[in-house]
Amino acid sequence: MWFRRMVRPVAFFICLALSGHAAVAQEAVDQFNPANAWSCLNAGIVSMSQTFTPEFDRLNFVDIHLSGGGSGSVTDGDFTVRVLRNGSVIRESEHLLIPAGDPTSSYRRFSFPQEANFSRNTEYEIELVNHSGTTYFSWCKSQNDSYPGGAPTSDPPYGDPDADFLFRTGMQSTFSSLAAPPTAGDYVYFESAPDDAIASSNSTSVSSGFFSGMNFEVDRPTRISQIGGRFSSGSQTVFGALFRATGFIDPPDSTDLTSSDVLATTLIDIPSRPFGGPPVDAFGEVDLVLEPGYYGVVFGSGLFGATGSTGLASVDSEYGSQFTYSFRTSDGSRFTQSSNVRVVVEGESLAGTHQVRPVYDVETQQYGGTWITLDGDSEVLPNLFPFYGADRRGMMEFSLEGVPEGAVITGAEIVMSVSQRSSGPAGLPSWSLHGFEGDGVLDNTSSDTPANEIGHSGPIGSFDPVDMDLDTAYLQSLVDNGVSHLGLSVRGSENGHSAGFNTWEWGQPQEAPLLTITYELPGDYDGDGMVGPSDYLVWQDSYGQSGAELAADGNGDGVVNAADYTVWRDHVVAASTTEAAPEPTSIFAAVFAVLSAIAWRRP
C-alpha cells in the first residue's frame, strides 16, 4: 500500500539540464558540418536546403546556424525545419520563435515531436521554412565544400554552389530521473536551470496572448506543493497551471485550460524589483498528489484572476532545456522557444516505495566457453538458440539501499521497453528473469548465474512496454540478508525468436529498465520511512480507537491496542540497542517505559 503521510520536501525542478547533483541533458550528434560560418543567406528571400547521409537510425533534433536579425528587425522569426526523402516530407519540427532584434549568430535547435526513423546510408534533406516572412534572419554557409556527406541547394542560386550549410543532426535525451532515484525523505533536484544561473535581458512571453512552460516526468507518487519559476518583471500576477501530459513536449489539450487534463491552477504574485534589477523567482501553492507519469506546467494571464504580463527570464545557454514552449491562445499555434528558462516544481515524495533504474545494463555472450561482456549499446537482445550453441543474456543490477531495514516487501515489478522483436510460425519471443545477489560491480562472473527464475514476460507481441512482476519472497530474502543489489539475468525464449530491450545508452533514460518495489514498514505509524519515537506518539494518541485505516493499527485488526505497541517495539530502531522497551501496563506506564528505554525526551 502507499503510506498516507509524507516525508521531507523533495523539489522536482523540471527536466533536463542540471548542475552539480542534478541530471544533465545529453545528446548524440550524428551528422554535422564542422566548418565556421562564412556567408549567410537571407531566409526571407532564398529557399534553402542541405542533403545529408545519416549513420543513426533515428533523429529528434536538427541544429542549424542562424544569423540574428539586428536592430532593424521588427518581426519575430518563426521557423520550422523539414526532413525530406526523395522530395517527400517525412517529419517537420516544432516552430522555433526567435525574438525580433535578436542579433545572435549561432546554432538554433529545432526539436521534433516524433522521431524521424532513417534507413542508414540513404540520402535525406533538411529544409528551412520561414513562416514569418521576415528578412532579418539568415542560414549561414561554410566557405567551401566542407561536408562530404551531402550538398547544399538554394533558390535562387547564391554564392559558391559547393559551400555547405552549417547544421547538426542527432538524438537528444531528456533525463526524467537520476541514475539512482531518491528514497523517501531524500532531497533531489530537477530544474530547467539552477538557482545561480545568470539571467539575460531576453524572456519568453507569459501573457494573455501566449502561455509558456515545459513538461516533466514524475517517477514516484508525489504530493506537489508549489510551482513557479524565474520571471523577468515584478509587481505582476500571473497564473500557473499543472496538467497531465503524454510526453515531454505536448501542451495542454485546450487553450483556455478547461479540458480535463488540467489538474490544478494557482496565482503567482511576482515581487516588485528595482528598475533594471535582476529577474526574481516566484511561486504559487498547489496541493496535488501525482502518480508516476508525464505532466506539464504553463504560465499565463487572463484566466483564473491573473491580470499581469511578464516573461520567463532567459538564463545562460549552458543551462536549461530545448523543450521550453509557448502556445498562442488565439489559435493554439505552438512554438518551441530558443530561450533557456528556469521553471520549478516542488513536492514531497510518498513513503513506501523504492524506484530505481539499473546501475548497469549490459549484454553478455559466450564465446568458446568464455563469457564476454558488451557494454555501451543502445539495446540488449537476449536470445537462446541451443541448436547453434548461442546464449546471449542481458545483465542488470539495481540498488536496494532505498528499502529500509525491517521492511516487508508487498510488491515488485520491472518495466522494460521493447526495442525490436521477431516472430513467426514458432510463436512469439519472451523473457525470463533470473535473480542473483548483486554487489553493484560489473564483472563476467555474474554472467554464468544458475537458473533462478523470479519473473517472466509471457509472449511479447507488440512494442508496448513490458511489465513483469517479480517474486517478492526472493526480494524479501535479499533485504533480510542485507544484500545491497538485486541482480537480474534476462534470458530469451528457445523458440528461435528474440526481443530486445532499451538500455541507458539508448538516448532516453526514461526508457531504461525501471524497478519498483513497494513495501510496508511495520511500526512506522507516522509514515516518515523510519520507525522511532514519533511513531510511539501516534500509537499513544490513538490508543483505544477502532475502525478502518487507523495509522497505528499495526496488526490490522481494526483496534489500536497493546498488540500494536508490540509491533512498534519489535521494529523500532532503538530496539536494536542493548536495552529493549518493556511491555506497558497502562498508557502512562508505556510512556515511562519508552522514555527510559530509548533515552528520548519530548520537547
Structure described in brief:
With 603 residues, the protein is mainly beta.
General description of the model:
- The chain is mainly beta.
- It folds into four domains: 7-21 and 179-350, no CATH class; 26-173, Jelly Rolls (Sandwich), CATH 2.60.120; 354-520, Jelly Rolls, CATH 2.60.120; 533-598, no CATH class.
- Helix content is 7%, strand content 42%.
- The chain has four helices and 38 strands.
- The strands form seven sheets. Strands 4, 6, 7, 8, 10, 12, 15, 17, 18, 20, 22 and 23 form a twelve-stranded mixed sheet that branches. Strands 26, 27, 29, 30, 33, 34 and 36 form a seven-stranded antiparallel sheet that branches.
- The two termini are 32 Å apart.
- Residues 1-26, 173-189 and 574-603 have low confidence and may be disordered.
- It comes from Botrimarina colliarenosi.
- InterPro entries: Dockerin_dom_sf.
- Residues 1-22 form the signal peptide.
Entry keywords:
mainly beta; 603 residues; twelve-stranded mixed β-sheet; seven-stranded antiparallel β-sheet; single chain; Jelly Rolls
Estimated helix fraction:
under 10%
Q: How widely separated are the two ends?
A: 32 Å
Ranges where pLDDT stays below 50 over 5 or more residues in a row are: 1-26, 173-189, 574-603
Profile the largest sheet: 12 strands, mixed
Total individual domains: 4
GO biological process, one term: polysaccharide catabolic process
Keywords: Signal
Signal peptide: 1-22
InterPro entries: Dockerin_dom_sf
